[in-house]
## 1
Amino acid sequence: MKNQEIAVIGAGIVGATAAFYLSKAGYSVTVYDEGTGQATSAAAGIICPWLSQRRNQEWYRLASNGAAFYPTLMTDLAEDIHHSAIYQQVGALVFKKNPATLLKLEKLALKRRETAPEIGDLQILSAEEITKKIPLLVTKDSALFASGGARIDGQLLTKKLIQEAIALGATVHSTKVSIESTPERNYLIKTDTIEKEVQQVILAVGAWLPNLLVPLGYQVDIRPQKGQLAHVHLSNMKDSENWPVVIPHGEKDIIPFADGHILVGATHENDQGYDLTPSQVQIQAMIQEASDIAPALNTATLVETKVGTRAYTSDFAPFFGEVPNNPGLYAASGLGSSGLTSGPLLGKMLVQLVMGQATDLPVTDYPIEKYIVKKHDN
Ligand SMILES: Cc1cc2nc3c(=O)[nH]c(=O)nc-3n(C[C@H](O)[C@H](O)[C@H](O)COP(=O)(O)OP(=O)(O)OC[C@H]3O[C@@H](n4cnc5c(N)ncnc54)[C@H](O)[C@@H]3O)c2cc1C
């Protein structure tokens, strides 16, 4: 099967990981990525699935295995796991609305650590201990600290994955494509100027999956969700690259990076379609909310607003697999708010499908046929 040509459409975290591992395995890979609205490059970058109270077991298994996969990915990319600008295990600090809920969360985390040692040390920190760990925070509350929590720069990660794929022989086209199936059961990848026939295709197009599959006669249960994030800067903030990511009670997370650069967000807007217009009102409201716990954010300089489109399904569950009735056509989508966590593992599992190998997690737990249904022959 090797030397076979494979097209990867979409170079967010899923497509870029797939392109890297396919190239590493000796396949001839062509990547097509339009880039507009990409969730990965707009994302906040928190890797901490173990402290989520979502009840969906398959989601948890995917996200926790996804988090556990990161050190392997970094090693495969020859990144120094302790000093990487891409991924750093800085720990995560989670607040809850009252002490009883925090204790409940600690209990859940201790239980989960039995099967997910990556969660690391767990400790409820007092208000004083919190400010000592991260001087930005001024609070009266306690919070749960998990040393295994990590921060990821999605943009840097995909850049590195694609660079490595290119070094291994992959070709990249920064363009939008459409796809047609041929009578020989191959696939035609089409742009205004290129037309290429391949036998196997990975669709890693996030929220844009309907655009590619509806013309092939499918009904696709994927919706776009707009996410906005504020990138702010605070001067005289030393050591910020070592601060943990902060998940306050509510939705506005605080993700510190080096030299006082901090991300605050994000919004989850289900009624904005694929719109990418930043809203100063929303951004100021997010900064205001986060400043309840980090008052210095009120004086921070707004560097940029990041806007991306997440993909989600009607029951918020992700899926991956071979597209029904189209052998050799694979897809993953519906990663929602946790795709930086699960994306690399999903990308790797798509490669395992291409290679005819068993996947790390059962493909039947993330059934693509539930979300992609053939309605008519195109
Ligand atoms: C504001 C925000 C904050 C987030 N924070 C976190 C977080 O803290 N932790 C976490 O785990 N996750 C987070 N996420 C979620 C995560 O970013 C996404 O789930 C994940 O990046 C999705 O990756 P993907 O590869 O499936 O899709 P994307 O990253 O969206 O990539 C899809 C790519 O396909 C391209 N494409 C689409 N159609 C075509 C076409 N026809 N031809 C060519 N190219 C095409 C797009 O332009 C895009 O580049 C956040 C998301 C947002 C928006």
## 2
Amino acid sequence: MTHTTYAERGTLADLTAYRAEESARAGSGPRAAHDLSSNELALPPLPSVLAGVQSELPRLGRYPDPTARELTEAVAGHLRVAPDQVAVGPGSAGVLQQILLALCGPGDEVVYAWPGFDAYPLLVAVAGATSVTVPLTGSGHHDLDALAARVTGRTKVVILCSPHNPTGTVIERERLHAFLRSLPEHVVTVLDEAYVEFERCGDPPGLPDVLRPAGRTVVLRTFSKAYGLAGLRVGYAAGPREVMATVRKTAIPFGVTRLAEHAAILSLGNGAELRGRLASVAAARSELALRLRELGLPVLPSQANFLWLPIPSHAASFGRAAAAAGVRVRAVQGQGVRVSVGAPEAHDMLLAALGQWARGMRF
Ligand SMILES: Cc1ncc(COP(=O)(O)O)c(C=O)c1O
């Protein structure tokens, strides 16, 4: 037997691979009938996108365009910025990894609110940097004053998320503007807008005004959520030229596949179809929130395609009751439960199970 010694990067020592425990558990138990744990869209891709990607299938033996030029130009056109202000990648998680690898290293700090998107700690550690987390307020909002107070000479990046995962809360634009203006010159802010289309009930062209004057802000978006392309892995960032130039250097070669590029371009051209779907998600979200509240459960108002229930001591038990009924949710003991807006039958199954579970309980 050969004996190999190797050194793992120190920042990875306390982490497991992304959702490794979850996939081990899933292998041993029954498969859930409905998955409301990953904030996916409960609808198939837009019909025009599904039809359009068929034309790319015969070319799968060829590498995609390494620069994803057509998608980069389409995104730039949509945002009304120059193509060199855009970087595309394999999901917005992939683009965020590029950003952190490009801007951070050992000894550097990345500040963000917590609880937050559970890939942030891992991606920061992959870059060799250190996470500095700041608790959300009681209402599930970013505590911008507390975040600003944690920014030091070591801070390279601040990540903000609006609408926020997992609470669905939005950072008010005036406050965001003031926060961005208050940061020192050496800090780049990443505004993660993975769910912004749900908040706006569409994806209107142009960059939000708040981002234009703030020279060190990068906006991060995805085709995984509102556009329903999570399985294809494609997202983008837009920001200052110099930042985007360095972010493109850390990309995995050919990271955006041919199908993903084509589907994303087609998606951007389908604003009307998108708006129709987002309206149906908003209606389903309101109905689900109402029915959960009728069971006595606290539900935060959400601008995204999920709901957050701040029930720290009942989260695990909620998750078990849902799983027993065949519905997966994201339960984080000590924090709460996140439920994605899904198909009507998934909501009915979940609510039927919770009706039993919640009887006699106080939250
Ligand atoms: C806040 C947030 N940002 C980014 C992502 C990454 O999405 P993707 O890599 O599919 O674009 C997610 C996914 O759940 C998310 O919740």
